[in-house]
Design a protein that fits this description.
This is VOC family protein. InterPro entries: DUF991_YecM-like, Glyas_Bleomycin-R_OHBP_Dase. Keywords: Coiled coil. It comes from Haemophilus haemolyticus. This protein has an eight-stranded mixed beta sheet with strand order 2-3-4-1-5-8-7-6. The protein has 189 residues and is of the alpha+beta class. It has one domain: 2,3-Dihydroxybiphenyl 1,2-Dioxygenase, domain 1, CATH 3.10.180.10. It has five helices and eight strands; from the N terminus they run H-H-E-H-E-E-E-E-H-E-E-E-H. Helix content is 29%, strand content 35%. A hairpin with an 8-residue loop joins strand 7 and strand 8.
Length: 189
């Protein structure tokens, strides 16, 4: 096992640009990423072959944490042996979804997922409403907000997400997704 920065030249070279774009999006969202756990970083690829190539490279730096079918496609979560520094945190999980039928405008780093926990006895709807009221993202015309809940066989905790990205993706295609639980917590239950 080796270090991501040493072995994944294309990915690590793009990481600094991705981090700048994520910080810009976070600023528009009025969130300070240091206040929340960055759960994992995610890649997007358009071809099965590119996904296989990235998986081979990622497995030189870590091991498969999960390889579930989510919304009809295989998604790998790779736990890195050595975490990478991103937005003043150390992140040790990379998500690599295999492609379905969607073509992404940019292949490579695409989104991060951060944890904003449920309050005691809070429902999914109450959580979404609280996050929306706290940040008022839907009031910002430059942002797109998408609320969803993925269903994965075997997962017992609810896994809703609020995805926030720019309306104009020409200069910044990145996305920040908010979840109430870390992916490790979802997988361990």
């Amino acid at each position: 096992m080796t270090n991501l920065q040493e072995n994944l030249t294309a990915l690590s070279a793009d990481l600094a640009t991705f981090e700048r774009k994520i910080q810009h999006l976070a600023k528009e969202m009025t969130i300070d990423l240091s206040d929340y756990e960055i759960d994992h970083l995610a890649l997007r690829v358009n071809s099965e072959q590119n996904a296989k190539n990235w998986l081979i490279l990622l497995l030189k730096c870590g091991k498969i944490l999960s390889d579930n079918i989510v919304n009809g496609r295989k998604i790998y979560l790779v736990k890195l042996e050595k975490p990478i520094k991103f937005a003043h945190q150390f992140v040790d999980v990379i998500e690599l979804p295999f492609p379905k039928n969607k073509q992404y405008p940019v292949e490579g780093w695409e989104h991060i997922e951060v944890v904003m926990p449920f309050l005691p006895n809070e429902s999914i709807n109450e959580w979404v409403q609280r996050i929306n009221m706290r940040f008022l993202w839907s009031e910002l015309t430059q942002l797109i907000i998408k609320v969803s809940e993925t269903k994965v066989d075997g997962e017992r905790l609810p896994n809703p997400s609020i995805a926030v990205s720019f309306v104009d993706k020409t200069s910044n295609h990145t996305c920040i997704k908010v979840h109430p639980y870390s992916i490790k917590k979802i997988l361990e239950v």
